[in-house]
Amino acid sequence: MTSLWLANRGNRAIPANPMVDADRSADVAVVGAGITGLITAVLLARAGKDVLVLEAQFPGAGATGNTTAKISLLQGTKMSKIVGKHGVDRATQYLEGNREGQEWLTQHCEAHGISVQREDAYTYAQSENGLSSVREELTACKSVGLDVTWVDEASDEAGVPFPFAGGVRLPDQAQFDPMPLLDSLIIELDERGGRLAQGVRVQKVSSKGDGLVLSVRTNDGAEFDTHAKQCVLATGIPILDRGGFFARLQPNRSYCMAYRVPGDITRGMYISADSPTRSVRYAPTAEGDRLLVGGAGHPVGHRKSPASSVQELDAWAKQHYPGAMQTNYWSAQDYTPIDELPYVGPILPGNDKIFVATGFDKWGMTNGTAAALALSSRILGGRMDWAEAFASWSPHELSGIPKAMQLNLEVGLYLARGWITPATRIGDRTPDEGGVVSGPPWDLEARSVVDGVEYRVSPVCPHLGGIVNWNDADESWECPLHGSRFAPDGTLLEGPATRNLTAAQ
């Protein structure tokens, strides 16, 4: 399972890379080498800060290397949700942050010769049932000043091969391959004296005097401390429980496939407002354009068989693009905030040592860049006028309390179900592909078979004790509580957990 962006990039093995003593301190430690972390690091390095980036795997291993990479200000039905919860003024601030992120990104790509395709973006209804939400998005976008228009089902613009009942169009948006961007940022970071350490997982951050101590573990098992004055957690979801962000976000997994298609491929960037979600764009490659089709999303660990939804998505693509041949398949994890707005700023109110950036809700290209602009500005003593809409702590979160209560009630139910359900199947020790089995309740075991190899690990997530579920589409273990993911052998793939699943007893 490799994304189109990460394919053909040579050896991506995680290096052991233990760091020498001289490298173990910095003005600012940035945790995570995705789009947010690397842009933040470069902006701080440009201002003369000594910056150290710590990446548990390799640059782009998370959402950035597995995104659909749309650089769009039309974001599904996002704007109508924000206007509905927070009003036009706050939604306008959100838009301004995203616009500034979009402009920074496209200008950087132009200056560095990175290919960007300018295309129109569409939020559309697949049937009449979705038209009301799409029209609400049209009204909301106009209220904040976006130059959107309505596209009818019968218009020439709607000449797409899939069901299109009507939609919103925003011209002159952008799409790209995000990996050359990361490459350019890594080069500039190095030129400006910054450092990138790969295969280094941060497990704890604590205060010491006027600074911070980051406890890290390298890929070869070495453990040591890194010291910094300030720290930015750009890890998708914060790896520290301070601030309770794990309880203020819903982790969602979605899937994408690339196809070789005979004949013309749809231009423009499309995303449906009604379910099941369908996301469509094209991508230039050295072997010709590829069709990208995404969707089949679900809360992490909550779907019994994600593979069935992925198969349905694949069938949809082949139905509407006859002769399509799949070349790549991948998935990504995104985090939906309880009040629709991202969390960018101090991990706790008044804390100017540790900062977070999360809650981009599948629109990380513009939101992640905006977060980097806001964080670097704050660390350097400035501020962005629109940053209030991205605040990590703000009264506007009150609008998200009902959703937070619902999500955390579900967390409690999944915690109880995870421990109780296997106990009702005592003696069932042979899951067909992957699953949690039980002897007595204290003897739970997660078993999976991948490519003929059987794996046995403890099913207890090291974050808060949830029982993991098997994802048959990704062949991975997922915690239904807060979205931690693990390989079949228990190796941690993404947090908020910071440790692997332990071996089965």
From TrEMBL:
Origin superkingdom: Bacteria
Protein name as it appears in the record: FAD-dependent oxidoreductase
InterPro entries: FAD-dep_OxRdtase, FAD/NAD-bd_sf, Rieske_2Fe-2S, Rieske_2Fe-2S_sf, Rieske_Fe-S_prot_C
PROSITE patterns: RIESKE
Coiled coil: none
CC annotations in GO: cytoplasm; membrane
Gene3D superfamilies in UniProt: D-Amino Acid Oxidase, subunit A, domain 2 (3.30.9.10), FAD/NAD(P)-binding domain (3.50.50.60), Rieske [2Fe-2S] iron-sulphur domain (2.102.10.10)
